[in-house]
Amino acid sequence: MNKHQQSFARLVTQSFSFFGYMLKNLPSIIFWGIRVKDINLDSCHTTLPFNWRTKNPFKSIYFAALCGAAELSSGLLCKLHLAGNGNFSMLVVDMNAQFLKKASNPILMKCEDGRRIKETLAALSKQGDIATLKTTIHGHDSHNEIVAKFEITWSFKRK
């Protein structure tokens, strides 16, 4: 990791700095209580609690909270790869979700597409180049069973 990536990883894994970053950029993440468990160049894992803020009337986790935790997992991994590597813009252009099992306990979201993200960004060599990448995120419950699968497509443009 370069020094910018190391700094970004520290920012999102330390409670106080993460709170400030999310308060400014994604306040719903704070409300739901989502946290970054681990981030490196290969993967990003986020946790989503099962509590009154994330629960729906059916006693499972609200789908929007699951989507938020999944997007954060892949988005932070993308931002980590962008850190110190030039000026890019990024945007979600598509999202698909499959809810496979009732999410009625804490969820661990895992995005392990770091190498693919790195390859995609490396292909954007000159200003104005655009690429898209579909990332896959799996949500695991406390029994390590997959409860949801997300595919989030990111668009990147070199500025």
List the topology elements.
Blueprint: H1 3-13, H2 15-25, H3 27-32, E1 35-39, E2 44-48, H4 63-82, E3 88-99, E4 107-111, H5 114-122, E5 130-140, E6 146-158
Antiparallel strand pairs: 1-2, 2-4, 3-6, 4-5, 5-6
Helix pairs in contact: 1-2, 1-4, 4-5
Number of beta-strand segments = 6
- What is the overall shape? globular
Q: How helical, in percent, are the residues? A: 25-40%
The averaged pLDDT comes out at 95
Fraction in beta strands: 25-35%
Structural class: alpha+beta
Brief account:
The protein is 36% helix and 32% strand.
Polypeptide structure, described:
Helix 1 (3-13) packs across helix 2 (15-25) and helix 4 (63-82) packs across helix 5 (114-122). The chain has helices at 3-13, 15-25, 27-32, 63-82, 114-122; strands at residues 35-39, 44-48, 88-99, 107-111, 130-140, 146-158. The protein starts with a helix and ends with a strand. The model has no long low-confidence stretch (mean pLDDT 95). The chain has a six-stranded antiparallel β-sheet with strand order 1-2-4-5-6-3. It is an alpha+beta fold and 159 residues long. The chain is globular. 36% of the residues lie in helices and 32% in strands. Strand 1 (35-39) and strand 2 (44-48) form a beta hairpin.
